[in-house]
Write a structure and sequence with these properties.
With about 325 residues, the chain is α/β, with parallel strands linked by helices. It is built from 11 helices and 14 strands. Helices cover about 35% and strands about 20% of the residues. Bound molecules: phosphoenolpyruvate and manganese (II) ion.
Length: about 325
């Protein structure tokens, strides 16, 4: 933390800041500049709250220098984290494509889509069994039946499966069936769920909260890692903005920033960002071009009859095209 004083801060005001820092057990290091003085805070183990200083007389700004997140930070671990799920490696240098319906609706639906996802070259199958729906009257998922269908998909097609967990009560059940446990946007700051995910032996995909800053998102990942689980993949899925041409706004600028700040793999979900099918392929290409390690895309063989998110689900043929583009972009980037 660096406390920047006003140009005309008095020596007394500077002294008060120095004493406040000392009273917290930290070391204050005044740094005289051309026209103002700044005071560095040393010996603090964790982050110091800038609000402590912001209201003090003579203080212009308080700037955090050390990051609040530790375990997920590159400062702590410089090498990229790779996550192994069955025969799939997720992370830098690898392309992971997750495809499947928003929700598991029946065995026939799941099997039909899984076959196409596999044929197209998708590596992991997705499908919600517990759905966090905005309306209590919407389809809530097939629950345990859905998990059993996912297990059948894994067995039949040899693909790992990912599915969302929405609460602690059903965590054991979901973890028993899923190869990757997904924490959705609505639960990104469900700290109790994050702590439980930290005790899981399964990798966790943590989706970005729909209005979360990068810092809040990484702090949520820090909860999982601090509770003991190092296998976390981040997934950008769009944030809420004022636009109406898409469901959310895909924040691709976050991808290179994560690569700088964190060693964790980052995937992009263009489906929930777009909300409409025709934006999904262009956004997917862009996501890979900015360095995402993979994609998670909704696919449905009969999207007009889907029980959730049909409008944004790709037809299987479109998913096949997407996989072709994705491999080309991945190979092109690897050559450079
Ligand atoms: C999902 O992936 O099925 C989902 C509900 O996504 P999100 O949490 O990003 O809305
Ligand atoms: Mn969905």
């Amino acid at each position: 933390m660096l406390v920047v004083m006003d140009k005309n801060a008095t020596p007394d005001q500077v002294d008060r800041v120095v004493r406040t820092i000392a009273s917290k057990g930290f070391v204050a290091r005044p740094i005289p500049g051309g026209d103002r003085i700044s005071i560095g805070i040393l010996n603090n183990e964790g982050p110091v709250d800038p609000a402590l200083f912001m209201g003090m007389p003579g203080v212009k700004d308080a700037i955090a220098v050390t990051r609040p997140y530790k375990l997920v930070s590159r400062e702590t671990k410089a090498e990229d984290t790779l996550i192994q799920v069955g025969n799939v490696t997720i992370g830098k240098g690898h392309l992971t494509i997750i495809g499947g319906p928003c929700a598991i609706e029946s065995e026939t639906q799941a099997m039909t889509i899984a076959e196409r996802v596999k044929q197209a070259g998708g590596n992991i199958f997705r499908g919600g069994a517990f759905k966090p729906r905005t309306s209590p009257y919407s389809f809530q998922g097939m629950e345990l039946e859905g998990l059993k269908i996912l297990a059948k998909v894994r067995e039949t097609f040899g693909m790992p499966v990912i599915t969302e967990v929405i609460d602690r009560e059903t965590f054991d059940q979901v973890e028993a069936y899923a190869d990757i446990v997904q924490i959705g946007t609505r639960n990104m700051q469900n700290f109790s769920l994050l702590k439980r995910a930290g005790q899981s032996h399964r990798p966790v995909m943590l989706k970005r909260g729909m209005s979360a800053t990068l810092e809040e998102w990484l702090m949520a990942a820090e909860y999982i890692m601090a509770a003991g689980n190092p296998n976390i993949l981040l997934c950008e899925r769009g944030v809420r903005t004022f636009v109406r041409h898409s469901r959310n706004t895909l924040d691709l600028s976050v991808v290179p920033v994560i690569a700088k700040e964190s060693h964790l793999p980052v995937l992009v979900d263009p489906s929930h960002a777009a909300g409409v099918r025709d934006q999904v392929i262009p956004l997917s290409r862009a996501a890979l071009a900015v360095g995402a390690h993979g994609l998670m895309v909704e696919v449905h063989h009969e999207p007009e009859n889907a029980l959730s998110d049909g409008a944004q689900s790709l037809y299987p043929d479109q998913f096949t095209d997407l996989c072709v583009y994705a491999r080309k972009i991945h190979d092109l980037l690897r050559e450079h």
